[in-house]
């Protein structure tokens, strides 16, 4: 049976924390990419944004979210978000559970991103989030950077990049 | 100085590298934009809630009763 998901690389944040996590030299040999994130921040719960090939332009996204007591939506004209990461206001030692999918990442078409994620919190507010993003650029994606809106990724946060074949 | 973890997918090597001045500036701009977006969302949510409560008050209902009625 053909292998569909192949783990390309994984990274775990050490005791010093990390401002960003970046996957570089991504091979063009897959059809799609998937990134799974288990993350916590050194400060408050914040969104995680991404960029491709170190480009911070032509990015946009739409968010739908629920907090446990309210729902809402947001539009972002210059950013692609992929869920939130838990922070110091959430239950200790809990991490978010997020993933985002990028189909046809090596094509010359614009690149779409779909993301779903939850933050863990044994309290009144915990987020469930769907993000839909777009990078309007024809270049093949060769690098992906994960950046918290504020604060750093805390120790034991992990991110794994998967290549998808036969999708 | 903040650092980033860089994974080279061709070798699997992970490096811890200090952010460049440009990356730090971008990080600060992102944080500022996010704080502004969050403030706008909170203001919009508060305005929506106030509007609901005003309608409920006209009807002699609590906001929760109005939500139940419309749900």
Set out the fold topology.
The complex is a heterodimer of chains A (167) and B (71).
Chain A: E1 5-12, E2 20-24, E3 32-38, E4 46-52, E5 59-66, E6 71-76, E7 80-85, E8 97-103, E9 111-118, E10 128-135, E11 144-148, E12 158-164
Antiparallel strand pairs in A: 1-12, 2-11, 3-8, 3-12, 4-7, 4-11, 5-6, 5-10, 8-9, 9-10
Chain B: E1 3-8, E2 14-18, H1 21-59, H2 63-70
Antiparallel strand pairs in B: 1-2
Tell me what the structure shows:
The complex is a heterodimer of chains A (about 170) and B (about 70). With about 170 residues, chain A is mainly β. Chain A has no helices and twelve strands. Chain B has one domain. Chain B is built from two helices and two strands; from the N terminus they run ββαα. Chain B has a two-stranded antiparallel ribbon. In chain B, a hairpin with a 5-residue loop joins β1 and β2. The N and C termini of chain B lie far apart (about 50 Å). At the A-B interface, β1, β2, β4 and β6 of A face β1 and α1 of B. β2 of chain A pairs parallel with β1 of chain B.
Tell me the number of strands of chain A: 12
| Protein chain pair with the most extensive contact, residues per chain | A-B, 33 and 25 residues
The low-pLDDT segments of chain A are none
Give the tally of structural domains of chain B: 1
SSE class of chain B? alpha+beta
Number of strands of chain B: 2
Q: Which runs of chain B of at least 5 residues are low in confidence (pLDDT < 50)?
A: none
Named at the architecture level, the CATH assignment of chain A is Sandwich
Query: Roughly what is the average pLDDT of chain B, rounded to an integer?
Result: 86
Rg of chain A to the nearest angstrom?
15 Å
Query: Which strand order spans the largest sheet of chain B, edge to edge or round the barrel?
Result: 1-2
Share of β-strand residues of chain B:
15-25%
């Amino acid at each position: 049976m053909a292998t569909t998901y192949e783990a390309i690389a994984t990274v775990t944040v050490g005791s010093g924390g990390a401002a960003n996590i970046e996957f570089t030299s991504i091979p063009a040999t897959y059809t799609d990419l998937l990134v799974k994130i288990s993350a916590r921040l050194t400060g408050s719960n914040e969104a995680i944004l991404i960029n491709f090939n170190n480009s911070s332009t032509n990015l946009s996204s739409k968010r739908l979210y629920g907090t446990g007591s309210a729902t809402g939506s947001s539009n972002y004209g210059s950013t692609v978000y992929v869920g939130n990461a838990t922070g110091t206001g959430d239950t200790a030692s809990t991490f978010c559970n997020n993933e985002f999918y990028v189909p046809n990442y090596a094509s010359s078409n614009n690149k779409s991103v779909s993301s779903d994620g939850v933050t863990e919190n044994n309290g009144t507010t915990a987020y469930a989030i769907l993000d839909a993003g777009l990078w309007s650029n024809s270049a093949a994606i060769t690098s992906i950077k994960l950046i918290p809106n504020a604060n750093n990724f805390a120790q034991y946060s992990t991110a794994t990049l998967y290549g998808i074949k036969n999708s | 100085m903040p650092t980033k973890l860089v994974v080279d997918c061709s070798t699997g090597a992970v490096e811890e590298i200090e952010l460049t001045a440009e990356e730090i500036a971008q990080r600060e701009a992102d944080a500022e934009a996010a704080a502004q977006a969050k403030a706008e969302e909170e203001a919009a949510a508060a305005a929506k809630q106030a509007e609901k409560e005003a309608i409920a008050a006209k009807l002699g209902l609590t906001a929760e009763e109005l939500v139940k009625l419309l749900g």
